[in-house]
C-alpha cells in the first residue's frame, strides 16, 4: 500500500497516473509524486515509525512504493554524530555529522536507488539503467544484482577508478563515454526514449528523487523529533537539497514535528557551481556551465533541480556557497583529523563550505546544525594521496626507535 496518488507537473499542474514518466506532455515540466497527506496524517505516528526496521524503510509510508516489493538492502538509519571536535574548532556547540557514507554502496545514493529498484520491480522492468557521476552507478549495479535485473550504467570516462571498479564488481554492463556528464545525460534520455528500460534518473526520476526525503525524516527523528536549525547539503543536480527540505515539511504536515524553520544551505565546488552563481546573482534560472572540478560526484553543469534548489534557498533563507578547489582536500582532511570520518570529495566540499558559512555569520554558536556527509573517502583516495608519508625503516627494533625519534624531532 502507498499514499502516492499521482504524478503532478511542477510547471503546469497537470496530473498523471503513477507510471514511469518524468516529463509533462504539455509543458515539458518535471513530474513529481503527490500524496494523500490527509490519509497519511491519520495513519502515520511516531510509534509506527519507531517500530519499523532500522533502515530507510521505516519511512515507507512516505514513499511511492507498495511495501511488499520493497528491496531492503539495509540502507539508511545511518549515524548522526555529535561533532564535538570539529564543532569546537569552528565555534559551533551543536554541530552534527550525518554520516551517510556507511550505506551498502558507501553513498546516500542507495536511498533514491532503493526506492527506484523497488518500483522498477513493481512495474516489471527487466532492465535497470542510469547515467552517473560515479556513486549512482555503484548503487544501481548493486541493487540490480540483488533484484536480478539486467543492469547497464553510462558515465563520463574520466571518473575515479574506485567508482568504476565499485560498479563493475556487481556484474553490470559499464559504458564509459568520452564526454561530460551533461552529454551522457542527454544520450541517456535518448536511450530511455527508445528502449523499455527503467532508467533511474530519467524516466524513473520522480521515484528516484523521493528516496532522498528519508534523510530529512531520519535527521529529525534522530534529533528527538525536532528539525535542525541548519542543514548544509552538497549539490550536483540539486535534488538532494530540495528533497531533504520536502521530507522535513512533510513531517510537519502530518504532525510528527512542529515549527520547521530549517535553513537549507547548499554547497558546491568552485569548478562546478552553477547553482551558487545563480543564487549570488539573484537569478531565477541556472546558467549551465562546463564542469572543471576535483569533486566529480558533484560535476553536473546543467542541474535538473537547480531552479527548485533556488526556490528552497529563498523559502528557507538558506545560503549557497562554493568552496575553492584546493579547499576540497582540506575539508576531507579536517573531518578525518577531527572526527575520524573519511569522506569523499563531496564531503570535503560540505566541510569547507560549512567553514565559510560560519565565517560569514550565517550559522552561529549554539544553533543546531547538520552537515551531510554523502559519500565515502575510499572512493576518491587520489585526491588526498599526499597524506601518504609512511616512515620507512629496516626490520630491526633499533631502526624503528631511531626513525620515530627522527620523525618527532
Ligand atoms: C550524487 C551526489 C550528490 C549530489 O546529489 P544531487 O541530488 O544530484 O544534488 C552529493 N554527494 C554525493 C556523494 C553524490 O554522489
Ligand atoms: Zn506541465
Topology order in helix (H) and strand (E) letters: EEEHHEHEHEHEHEHEHHEHEHHEHHEH
Global outline: globular
The tally of beta strands, per DSSP, is: 13
Alpha carbon gyration radius: 21 Å
User: How many DSSP H or I helices?
Assistant: 15
| Heteromolecules bound | pyridoxal-5'-phosphate, zinc ion
Q: Which stretches are poorly predicted, pLDDT < 50 over at least 5 residues?
A: none
* Beta-strand content estimate: 5-15%
Order of strands, widest sheet: 4-5-13-10-11-12
Q: What does the largest sheet look like? A: 6 strands, mixed
Can you walk me through this structure?
The structure is a single chain. This protein is of the alpha/beta class and 409 residues long. The protein has helices at residues 37-43, 46-50, 84-90, 110-122, 135-147, 161-168, 181-194, 205-211, 213-222, 239-253, 274-280, 306-316, 326-339, 345-359, 397-408, and strands spanning 4-9, 15-16, 31-35, 80-82, 95-99, 127-131, 150-156, 173-177, 198-199, 230-234, 263-269, 320-323, 369-373. Helix 4 (110-122) packs across helix 8 and helix 10 packs across helix 12 (306-316).
